[in-house]
Amino acid sequence: MSPISHLCKIGPIALSLLLASGLSARPLEDLPGEEVTLRETGSALPKSRAPASPEMPSTWLAQPIDEQLARDENLLTVSKGALFVPTYSESRREPEVSIYSPSGELVRTGLTGTRILLDSGDYQVRIGSGSQRQQMRFDVRIEEGHTRVLKPTWGGLLVETLTPDGDYFEGQYEVIRIDRNGWYGRGRGLGEERLQDINLWILPPGIYRLGKVGDPASALRSYITVELHPGELQSVELVYADKNPGSEIIAGGLKTLNTRVVAGRHWTYGLRAGGNLAFVSSVDISDTRKEIGQLSSDVRLRVRYDNAVYYGLNEINLRNNFLKERGAPISVVADEATARSTWVRRFNDWVGPYLRGQISSHFFSRHSEADTIYVVDPRPDPDNPGSLIIDTLMTDYSGRFRFEPSYYPLLLSEGLGVNLDILDFSRIELSTQVGLAAHQRFSEDDYVALTSNQYYQTSTESDIGLETLVYARVRPFNFLTLDARMELFAPNAEISGIQLTDLEMDLRLTLSRFVELGYLFQINEITEAAANSFPSSHSLSIRFNLNY
Fold first, then answer.
1. Which candidate, 112, 141, 98, places its Cα nearest to that of 200?
2. Using one digit for the tens of pLDDT, what is the confidence trace for 492-539?
3. Could you give the CA distance from residue 233 to residue 134 in angstroms, rounded to a whole number?
4. For 193, how many CA atoms within 13 A lie in the half-sphere containing its CB?
5. DSSP calls for 126-151
6. CA 444, CA 458: separation in Å to the nearest integer?
7. How far from chain centre, in Å, is Cα 43?
8. How far is the C-alpha of 313 from the C-alpha of 357, rounded, in Å?
9. Nearest to 344 by CA among 138, 196, 150, 539
């Protein structure tokens, strides 16, 4: 039966702006920012102009500053001035802007990319990730009828976490500034259906280390470094060995697969393709000559749709690696083909349903070249829990046992749910994801390895379940941060059978610029028979970091 027959079984917001000319005014000296002037009555929104320097880099995900100002719906009113802090991406993905009086009293909070209305006077603006005392501070003066644009002298950092196969997941990492000592906290990637919800780090320009959670800043493995420049957004990929907690970071760096912006359209695209052809001839100590040829390729195509209402991310990944040794047949080292699509409907800043799907397969049959292959039938041993009884059904002596035909197994996965950002304030964040996930594996004469020379035949199977993920971050004080994460799963969508897949609480106390106290609590529910169905772990650490 062909894979196509299996597949058949599966079951603009228009904006209007009133523009008017305004009175020009010379910016006050020795203040950060560019001034945009309105009529003295503040009754109309003029066409704004972006700061002359620095220019908006092409790395930004947001529109140019003048377009951000033109789209902002917060209009100046009589007796008010405004502060405008540009956004590198979207307001909801960046830290809040806090505005204090000269005496240190909190006056207002607001979002990047929107006007923050203020009375005339002098203020201190605080913005940035990390604890409040790590935030950048700028002194500004606000005048009635004027919008003060704060020049973006900070760096932006967007981190995506994925596996070597290109699957996005919730990998964890820590951000440490190494040119000036300081932990900025723990970050987390997201699955493909929430890539557009990854929060940006807003940080002072400098050199930062993105490393494995819990490792000291002096660890020599499982990390990368990135340099942030004023006014630029850096997009970074971290590649983990697998999706397991505590997995090592095996690669990473600046993101090389982006989407090329096509002016005037919501569709953008990106293509990354590469390959390698190699030939090796060698003679070993026994005077045996070997000649090996290798051909590999890696093609990744990304197409994105992004407007005010919908966000769609579509990818096709093709990876192949073939090996040919003289006197031996061609060996397929790697042969992977994956197509995935995720679509999100944006109702507002805090809710958005999503729909996703993925197909994974391969084009060429796969063989084992072991001299002897045993086709077995493993089954649980009723007398020894955890052990297997293995019956041999067939023995193959051909030296080329085919364990996977072309296209099989054919793997499908689908998801339908909603993303909710319930709270998003400077001291508390709370978000959740609720969805229905389904997986299918279509088999046709394919086998799975039990050991290096034992294989068992698989059958077509599927499962469906209700998934829930809750994430919270609390910063009650400038020196204290608590991250909490809870993941639940209900097999067959039965609420009565909800399982606690993961519960994690991470408490970090900054004692000084060089010392941090950390406490980590983790617990998982075990569904199999066990003396303790909820194994847990506690970890207390004191971390030191000094670069001199």
1. 112
2. 777 777 888 888 888 888 787 778 788 888 888 876 656 677 888 898
3. 19
4. 23
5. EE-SSSGGGSEEEEEEE-TTEEEEPP
6. 8
7. 42
8. 11
9. 196
Identify the sign of the CA torsion 346, 347, 351, 357: negative
Kindly write down the DSSP assignment for every residue of 163-213, as one continuous string: -TT--B---EEEEEETTTTEEEEEEE---GGGGGGPPPEEE-SEEEEEE-T
End-to-end CA distance of the chain: 67
pLDDT above 50 for 33: no
Nearest residue to 253 (alpha-carbon basis) of 223, 219, 221: 223
- Between CA 205 and CA 246 the distance in angstroms is 29
Amino acid, res. 417: G
Residue entry with tokens 């070597």: 164
Please check whether residue 116 is in contact with residue 123, taking contact to mean a CB–CB distance below 8 angstroms. Answer: no
CA distance 354 to 437: 12
CB 140 within 8 A of CB 125: yes
> In angstroms, rounded to a whole number, what is the distance separating the alpha carbons of residues 90 and 97?
13
Listed residue (200, 219, 199, 217) closest to 208, CA to CA: 217
Element (H, E) at 373: strand 373-380
Decide if 95 contacts 53 (C-beta within 8 A).
Answer: no
**Residue 290 phi, psi (nearest 5):** -125, 135
DSSP-derived pairing of the beta strands 206-211 and 201-203: unpaired
The domains located in the chain, with CATH, are 19-153 (no CATH), 154-256 (2.60.40)
Q: Whole-angstrom Cα distance, residue 63 to residue 70?
A: 10
pLDDT at 548 over 80: no
Amino acid at 435: G
Instruction: Return the number of other C-beta atoms located less than 10 Å from residue 147's C-beta.
Output: 27
DSSP state string for 92-129: GGSPPEEEE-TTS-EEEEE-TTSEEEE-SEEEEEEE-S
In the predicted model, is pLDDT for residue 55 greater than 60?
A: no
Tell me, what's the pLDDT at 54?
43
Instruction: Tell which residue, 253, 244, 256, 200, has the closest CA to residue 225.
Output: 253
Q: Give the list of residues 6+ apart from residue 4 with CB closer than 8 angstroms, or none.
A: none
d(CA 414, CA 343): 12
Find the mean pLDDT for residues 106-122: 92
Instruction: In whole angstroms, give the CA distance from residue 95 to residue 104.
Output: 20
Judge whether 222 and 167 are in contact, CB under 8 Å: no
Give the CB-side neighbour count of residue 374, counting CA atoms within 13 A: 11
Other C-beta atoms closer than 10 Å to the C-beta of 73 total: 9
CA-based radius of gyration for the chain? 28
Of the candidates 218, 117, 237, the residue with the CA atom closest to the CA atom of residue 176: 218
pTM: 0.66
Measured distance CA(394)–CA(398) in Å, rounded: 12
